[in-house]
Amino acid sequence: MKRILSLLIVALVATPLMALAQGRYQYTEVKPPQPVDTDGKKIDVVEFFWYGCPHCYNLEPLIETFVKKLPPDVQFRRVPAVFNDRWALDAAIFYTFEALGVLDKLHRPFFDAIHRDHLRSENQAAMSEWLTKNGVDPKKFYETFKSFGVQSKTKRAIQLTTAYKIDGTPAMAVQGRYTVSAEQGGSREGMLDTTSYLVDLVRKGK
Questions:
Q1: pTM for the model
Q2: Which of 1, 49, 116, 122 could form a disulfide with 88 if both were Cys (CB 3.0 to 4.6 A apart)?
Q3: Distance of CA 122 to CAs 87, 91, 166, Å?
Q4: Are 51 and 81 in contact (CB under 8 A)?
Q5: What is the average pLDDT value for the chain, to the nearest integer?
Q6: 6: Cβ–Cβ under 8 A, 6 or more apart, which residues?
Q7: Listed residue (196, 197, 4) closest to 87, CA to CA
Q8: Contact 82, 91 (CB under 8 A)
Q9: Can you give the pLDDT at residue 155?
Q10: What is the DSSP code string of 109-172?
Q11: 192, exposed or middle or buried, with CB in 10 Å at 0-12, 13-18, 19+?
Q12: Which of 150, 158, 134 has its CA nearest to residue 92?
């Protein structure tokens, strides 16, 4: 993970940002806008998070409800933010879950294990025990963890964290153009409300 960070974070050029306010909504404009993978058919909404972040953990029930209520023209995805080696490790765990096809099953339980049961994801013995209890072969997990695909996605998460100038979690991004933090939103609910406002703003401009 140290090699990933040294090769990428140091080399990336910071993206200029512009803080904006519209009525009760506060958010940041990303300049230049970042590319999204929706082919113009859907509006891209991203949650930047970290498994070790208590605020992200407390946001998760609201995010689950928020996602269920999103209109058909919106695509939601999570990106693990990466600021250091510790965060890079958890980002790789996220992408390993995804590669093994167990992300939907294990995302919330893993959050619970860290914040409720005090699991330390950097402790491989503790992680292996938790994986076994949750039906995942630890050997296969760590082989996948080290794979090119997982490491490439972790590098991409580092790039996105830097490009969007994310400085804390949780944070939301809309269509590569705007970001909003919990601080800007005033609360977890306010952050998601602002995200919905930005989705409407993008929709009106399409």
A1: 0.88
A2: 1
A3: 10, 12, 23
A4: no
A5: 91
A6: none
A7: 4
A8: yes
A9: 98
A10: HHHHHHHTS---TT-HHHHHHHHHHTT--HHHHHHHHTSHHHHHHHHHHHHHHHHTT--SSSEE
A11: buried
A12: 150
Mean pLDDT of 119-144: 98
Q: Which pLDDT does position 23 carry in this prediction? A: 64
Q: In the CATH scheme, what is the code of domain 2-205?
A: 3.40.30.10
Average pLDDT over residues 140-152: 98
d(CA 53, CA 50): 5
Tokens of 180: 């909003």
What pLDDT, in 10s, does the model give residues 13-66?
444 455 665 668 999 999 889 999 877 789 999 999 999 999 999 999 999 999
Q: Rounded to 5, what percent of the chain is helix, strand, coil? A: 50, 15, 30
> What are phi and psi for residue 174, nearest 5 degrees?
-125, 120
Q: How far is CA 85 from CA 3, 88, 119, 185, in A?
A: 9, 5, 18, 28
